[in-house]
Amino acid sequence: MHEVIDLSGLNELINAATAHLSAETVYPPPTSPEALARYIDHTLLKPTATEAQIRQLCREAIEYNFITVCVNPVWVARCSEILSGSNSSVCTVIGFPLGATTTEVKVFEAQQCVANGARELDMVINVGALQSGDFVAVYSDITALAQAAHAGDASLKVIIEAAYLSEREKIAACVLAKSAGADYVKTSTGFGPGGATTEDVALMRRVVGAETGVKAAGGIRTLADCNAMIAAGASRIGASAGVSIMREAQQE
Fold first, then answer.
1. Is 225 a catalytic site residue?
2. Does 3 score more than 60 pLDDT?
């Protein structure tokens, strides 16, 4: 059950979070390549992705024991079939990459993806509504998606697209996502003006606390990048360079 809040008091909730951020913490890195693999959503979201590339992505996920593959909705059923019986599951994206579709469309997309085998959904918030100060619309959008995900025994990650946002807007997005029942907040789509930064990850972790996950995504290409994001508070890493990152980890 997510926290029930008074919608008329959203601004006060955000103001309180802004004024009383938790202390910044440095988190330990994974202790082995095997542990690192369980942080990684092995990602291929390019519109030009072919079936052969998607099959290769799934083979790599099985080989390295990545926690998920993250693919566009059109590939969910195929990936679910390929990964059946493995330790890797399917993550997909909703309202991607702009977040500017209606809530009803996002909910339908989420329900279809869950029916096709997705176990994790990464939705993009309505960035324009957030920047307009329409926090009720943002909260309602996320709530509907959280309910759709959880009804299908899937988890919800909320992409805030931090590179577009001021610090207060980042805080607001995280407060709204957590209050609406999201399981994670996520930095970026990878298709916006910037990717993950350790500063954003640390801020997001301080806002949501220990109970909610933080996913860093966008521009994470090396083992050093991964370890920096995890030290800042990331509990999940979205990366298309998962194989090269794992090879680095194995060599070390």
1. no
2. no
- For the beta carbon of residue 83, count every other beta carbon within 10 angstroms: 22
* 79 in Cβ contact with 45 (< 8 Å): no
Identify each DSSP E strand in 160-202 by its residue range: 184-186
Rounded Cα distance between 145 and 182, Å, is 8
CA–CA dist 11, 149 (Å, integer): 26
The residue behind tokens 């993950």 is: 196
**Which of the residues 41, 157, 215, 225 is marked catalytic?**
215
- Tell me the pLDDT band of 232, cut-offs 50, 70 and 90: very high
Residue 50: phi and psi, rounded to 5, are -100, 165
- 238: β partners: 41, 217
CB-based burial label for 15 (10 Å; 0-12, 13-18, 19+): middle
Under 8 Å between Cβ of 3 and 124: no
Q: Give SS3 for 247.
A: helix
Catalytic residue among 41, 106, 122, 157: 122
Rounded CA gap, 234 and 184, in Å? 10
Q: Which residues partner with 239 through β-bridges?
A: 42
Longest dimension (CA), the chain: 54
Is 215 part of the annotated catalytic residue set? yes
* Tens-place pLDDT, residues 21-70: 878 899 999 999 999 999 999 999 999 999 999 999 999 999 999 999 99
Q: How many Å apart are CA 31 and CA 204, to the nearest integer? A: 24
Measure the CA–CA gap between 200 and 245, rounded to whole angstroms. Answer: 22
Q: Which of 178, 186, 200, 225 is catalytic?
A: 186
